[in-house]
Please model this.
Amino acid sequence: GYPEKESAGMLKLDFDRKEIAEVIDRIVHKTMNMDLTWDWPCGVAYYGIAKAWEVTKNEEYLELLKNRVDEYMELGLPPQWTVNTCAMGHCLITLYEATGDEKYWDVAMSKVAYLRKDALRFGDHVLQHTVSANNDFPEQAWADTLFMAAFFLLRVGVKLKDEEIIEDALNQYYWHIHYLQNPETGLYYHGYNNITGDHMSGFYWGRANAWAAYTMSQVGAILPEAYLYPKFLEVTGSLNEQLAALKLLQTENGLWRTILDDEESYEEVSASAGIAAAMLEKGNPLHSKYINKAIKGLLANVSKDGKVMNVSGGTAVMKDRDGYREISKRWIQGLGAQGLALAFFLGGCLRLMMRRRTALYNQTGV
Model:
């Protein structure tokens, strides 16, 4: 059991604050010891590091992140952006806000310019998922794009108060919901092929559902007067139905599987972290018991040196069930769990801190 019961908003969460803080610290240092290059695994991992600084205000985390990004810039950045490399834009926003140094914002805006002007699109201006300079996946929409590009565009649009960028971001959410969510189950497919009009192999991949759930949970949190945007109502409705379906697929260990509805598929920790983090952000009190199970399940998958374990490697839209089930989960991955685990653990801390600040204000008026 856990020594304390904390109420984060309406949620009733069971966790030890000291233990969570120590786990966050271990994950941060392990992540910064990884030799990640400027691509999406690094982008997701450093999103977690940036969030760790934003929540804890531990200056060491900011310094570690700043020094590494500066080193990348000195060595030279990739000559051409992709949807996946735009994931690094998340930490650049944080570094610019923390330091005021325009060099971080300039690189972030170069990613925005790529997404807005040069990135491959199809249909109703939907971003095609790209991982290289080649046209690897013609007219394919992947759930991954929601984290790497749509969420990033939304953050920039809100910061700039640029309605065109905000609408572009919300348009990505709208069409990815349309293409990827099965209205009969509430779950998300990994990808959609606009040329063939199908979901290819058609599996409910766990991490795809995490990308969708986590990023959708963030829209209302960061977009002022979100309720005034019609497409936001699509996001809210989609997320509500998705989480209602996902809660029923949680395992006894508090995790979710790499193929969500396949009991022979292994439990996968990046999907579990992202889904549970979405539940935290959404804050539905009925999800408290599922989040508490996830806390235990995720803590059990962090090693003593901060490695988040049992995370599947980078995964394309695979051809069949075995393609997903046989992806290795042996190695440390920045791409999902190092970043998404931080997002989950920090989400609980953030909600608790916000509740305490509100209580303090109510008591003192300051």
Observations:
- Residues 38 and 77 are 7 Å apart (CA to CA).
- The two ends are 35 Å apart (CA to CA).
